[in-house]
Fold this sequence. Notes:
By secondary structure, the protein is an alpha+beta fold. The protein is built from two helices and ten strands.
Amino acid sequence: MQLVNLSCRCGEVKLTVEGPLIASVECLCSSCQTAAKTLEALPGAAAVLDDKGATPFVMHRKDCIAIVAGQDKLKAHRLSDDAGTRRVVATCCNTPVFMELKGGHWLSLYAALWPDEDRPSIEMRTMTGTRKDLPTDVPNLKTHSLAFYGRLFSAWAKMGFRNPQIADNGNLHAGQ
């Protein structure tokens, strides 16, 4: 299996990813758009949203991801105290690292962690709603499809229906 080495922009947080991806997507949900704007406003942060207003993610099983350096630099951002998702940022350079859905067995790694030449190609756009202005190069799913959920279930089955925990180092709030 191929081992991929990833890092935040400054290189202090390092990850390895092994094995096949679950999916490579661009998410256009309102939560990802709101969170991206918040993360982009952090000091020195790079753009999160692409030119379509989407957040590109590469989804992998948690058991295929290892944080090998800089775990102490990871902080979680939630849109509200009771939000079901957390977006984890490398505070050394304010690079978004991953998004995790509460109870999920996968991580949605921010695609910008990959160098352009190695980044997996987008397979689909999700949560496009009523947008008619999107390119038709990949499927534009109004919501999540049965095939999308099938990929997630298949990945979970391959993990033995486990849900490894990925720790962070506290909470990040935009005003701090």
